[in-house]
Write a structure and sequence with these properties.
Distance between the termini: 33 Å
Order of helices and strands: EEEHEEEEEEEH
Shape: globular
Helix content: under 10%
Strand order of the largest sheet: 3-2-1-4-5
Radius of gyration: 15 Å
Number of domains: 1
Largest sheet: 5 strands, antiparallel
CATH architecture: Roll
CATH class: Mainly Beta
Number of helices: 2
Oligomer: single chain
CATH superfamily: YopX-like domains
């Protein structure tokens, strides 16, 4: 079964829901009911990020909205945000197909957006 997982940035941390892998196996987990942000459905949809189903070169899950360091020779060493491309129905980094063995998750757009502003920034 493929992993269908989502996360949303609420109150300074990520909250996960969907069919999440726990020690007992996969279970469905919902958003917390004590959500202080009081998001509308539209806001929740916009801020929600999906697990791509891929792992980076260190075995860490790659999520939509993650910032990754890419070391693919053809692309050079660059920093990209993972995004969903509606037209082609795929996760990509600046319209390039994701090749997980060359990627390393170094942050996310909520906590580490400064990495995207300065492509030469040092990794956290």
């Amino acid at each position: 079964m493929r992993s269908i997982e989502f996360r949303i940035w609420l109150n300074g941390s990520f909250h996960y829901w969907g069919f999440v892998e726990l020690r007992a196996g996969k279970v469905f987990v919902g958003l917390p009911t004590n959500n202080q942000d009081r998001l509308s459905m539209d806001e929740a949809e916009i801020r929600s990020q999906q697990f791509t189903g891929l792992l980076d070169k260190n075995g860490k899950k790659i999520w939509e909205g993650d910032i990754v360091h890419c070391t693919l020779r053809a692309m050079g060493e660059e920093i990209y945000a993972v995004e969903w491309i509606e037209v082609t129905a795929e996760f990509s980094i600046q319209n390039k197909v994701i090749c997980e063995k060359y990627l390393e998750v170094i942050g996310n757009i909520y906590e580490h957006s400064h990495l995207l502003e300065n492509k030469n920034a040092k990794r956290d």
